[in-house]
Specification:
Elements (H helix, E strand, L loop, with lengths): L4 E8 L3 H12 L4 E4 L14 E5 L6 H4 L3 H5 L6 E8 L2 E6 L1 H5 L2 E6 L2 H18 L3 E3 L4 E7 L2 E7 L5 E8 L6 H5 L11 E10 L2 H8 L7 E7 L7 E7 L3 E9 H7 L3 H9 L14 E10 L1 H4 L5 E2 L2 E3 L8 E3 L2 E3 L1 H20 L6 H11 L2 H5 L2 H10 L2 H11 L2 H9 L4 H5 L2 H5 L5 H15 L1 E2 L11 H6 L2 E3 L7 E3 L4 H4 L1 H5 L12 E8 L2 E8 L9 H5 L2 E3 L7 E3 L4
Parallel strand pairs: 1-2, 1-10, 2-7, 4-12, 10-17
Antiparallel strand pairs: 3-6, 4-5, 5-20, 8-9, 9-10, 11-14, 11-15, 12-13, 13-14, 16-17, 18-19, 21-26, 22-25, 23-24
Helix pairs in contact: 1-5, 1-11, 11-12, 15-19
Length: 554
């Protein structure tokens, strides 16, 4: 074998999962190299985002990184509400009890601030064991010898070998795909999140959300304001800003030919939000990402050879109705992966680390949260189109509406039941039909006005920071016919049917007297969410290290 540089452990990605893995390796004295493709940890990462410390979790972020909450987080979330919307009528439920189930604490975070703080700690601790953290390095694949994984390859450096590799490289993981553990074939296995960070002084947040200095609020939105697309919206209070966004099932976005930025604007301009937003609305950053649906794709065996996969790269994102958790599971998985390797090595069988890691995920209850048994038992029935049509027809009938009114005193309690939340089917019923009927039958008409004028898509793109890798496009359209790749025109968060400045555009080309409908691509405004890799026929990779979009909030 070529004499490449060697480390005992390589961690790819410096988000919370990678940071947890690296810190745990360092705690065991294992020489660890961490590679991050952004100019700084967090510059490529986007989250809603709330990070939880679960009482039942084997590891929490503040266990591994003392001082995390004081230095790297935003506000503790002390109030959690969901708003069912039908036109201007709203019926709200307090979900604080559900939010606090199995919760030690939960904080709002901004990924650039959080991940960069974690990276400083990681670099200090891994350097003590002979490693360290390098940014601006895009790990593009796995190095193999005689068919076995022995290391990684990058765009910027010579190949590097390792005894163990932890892939924490996000939802668009090139290592998970290279190992055959993940694919991007089915839109119904993914969510797409779009987010705006909005400037708001701390005293204004305190007044409008009725929270103290060490308090924060989370609000969820569902019903008819999203044009029938399955999903919902969120609002989280940060120290001096708000995170507002929408998360939708990707297959529903495609089916409805809905445009993500317009769905976000529908929420931002709804009368309900007039109590929190006003004409001084200042959008600091627009961003987007794919989110794995753990109920369908969380890997039961997230390993292959020397490779272990954690976080979004392993599908470890729990999105079950109003329960939205991901970063905490990435932390548990990253620490358990490193722990598994250290223990397997101590038994002189490091090759068993992956199997031990999978066992730990199951034994510690992580997999049950990600892939709840109740959902898996019921989805074969509850997600049939015929069942959905029947349930919706009953709900919207006079009988169903009477039932909603009769249960009005019990609905909040039912919403706060963790077992029911874990069984919610991925259909229009819980996201659109039921909340709309609840609002129509029980809601109060909102009298507030909302004077918000969100930026248009062009302004949002122009406000982002890019270092375009001229001459090295990271996406190639393999089939530019509208049938194969046209869904990207509307589904891409920085494209739109009537907008000519985004990534994907629709065109009509005349050839020999016939007209063909095709799409064209410009990767310059790309936010690297990966949507087009799922809905279009493309060859998709991340840009080279330090290139492409750079998020300052995340």
């Amino acid at each position: 074998m070529t004499d490449y540089e060697h480390y005992e452990a390589i961690v790819v990605g410096a988000g919370p999962g990678g940071a947890a893995a690296a810190a745990t390796f360092a705690n065991y004295g294992i020489e660890t190299l961490v590679l991050e493709r952004g100019v700084e940890a967090g510059s490529k990462n986007v989250s809603g985002g709330l990070i939880y410390a679960e009482e039942s979790a084997p590891y929490t972020i503040d266990d591994l990184f003392p001082g995390f909450r004081e230095e790297a987080a935003e506000r503790p979330i002390t109030t959690y509400r969901i708003h069912n919307i039908a036109g201007s009528k709203v019926e709200s439920f307090d979900l604080t009890r559900l939010h606090e189930h199995d919760t030690e604490w939960s904080d709002a975070v901004l990924r650039r601030k959080m991940d960069s703080w974690l990276a400083e700690r990681v670099h200090e601790r891994t350097r003590e064991a002979g490693g360290g953290l390098l940014t601006d390095v895009h790990v593009n694949g796995l190095l193999r010898e005689d068919g076995k994984i022995v290391g990684i390859t990058t765009d910027e450096l010579d190949p590097i070998t390792a005894d163990v590799i932890v892939a924490a490289d996000g939802v668009n993981s090139e290592l998970a795909r290279d190992a055959g553990l993940m694919d991007w074939d089915e839109p119904e296995e993914w969510f797409q999140g779009v987010k705006a960070v909005v400037d708001m002084p701390a005293d204004v947040i305190a007044d409008r959300f009725d929270v103290g200095e060490d308090e924060g609020a989370a609000h969820l939105f569902s019903g008819d304001l999203f044009s029938g697309v399955r999903g919902g919206g969120f609002l989280y209070t940060n120290r001096e800003s708000l995170s507002l966004g929408t998360v939708f099932h990707l297959d529903s976005l495609v089916a409805e030919r809905a445009e993500p930025h317009e769905l976000l604007d529908a929420m931002l301009t709804h009368p309900l939000l007039g109590q929190w937003l006003d004409e001084d609305y200042t959008e600091v950053e627009y961003s987007a990402k794919l989110v794995p649906d753990s109920k369908k794709v969380a890997l039961r065996e997230p390993h292959f050879g020397r490779l272990m996969v954690v976080g979004d790269a392993a599908g470890q994102m729990q999105a079950q109705g109003p329960i939205i958790k991901g970063m905490n599971h990435a932390v548990s998985a990253g620490a358990l992966a490193a722990e598994a390797y250290a223990q397997a090595k101590s038994r002189n069988s490091p090759e068993d680390a992956g199997t031990l890691y999978a066992k730990k995920l199951k034994r510690e209850g992580v997999m049950q949260k990600l892939r709840p048994q109740g959902y898996e038992l019921m989805r074969g029935i509850t997600e049939r189109d015929s069942v959905t049509d029947l349930v919706d027809s009953v709900l919207t009938s006079s009988v169903g509406r009477f039932g909603v009114r009769a249960l009005s005193g019990q609905l909040e309690r039912l919403y706060n039941t963790p077992a029911l939340s874990s069984m919610i089917p991925d259909t229009r019923t819980p996201y659109v039909t039921l909340p709309t009927v609840i609002a129509e039958e029980l809601g109060t008409r909102i009298r507030e006005t909302n004077d918000v004028s969100p930026p248009d898509l062009e302004a949002r793109i122009e406000n982002l920071t890019y270092d375009t890798d001229i001459g090295n496009p990271h996406i190639t359209v393999l089939d530019n016919s509208f049938e194969a790749s046209g869904a990207a025109v509307s589904a891409c968060p920085v494209s739109a049917v009537d907008f000519g400045g985004g990534c994907y555009r629709e065109e009509f080309v005349r050839t020999n007297g016939s007209e063909e409908r095709v799409v064209s691509l410009d990767t310059q405004p790309c936010v690297e969410c990966g949507t087009c890799a799922v809905v279009a026929d493309t060859e998709w990779t991340h840009p080279r290290g330090g290139k492409g979009v750079e998020f300052n909030q995340g």
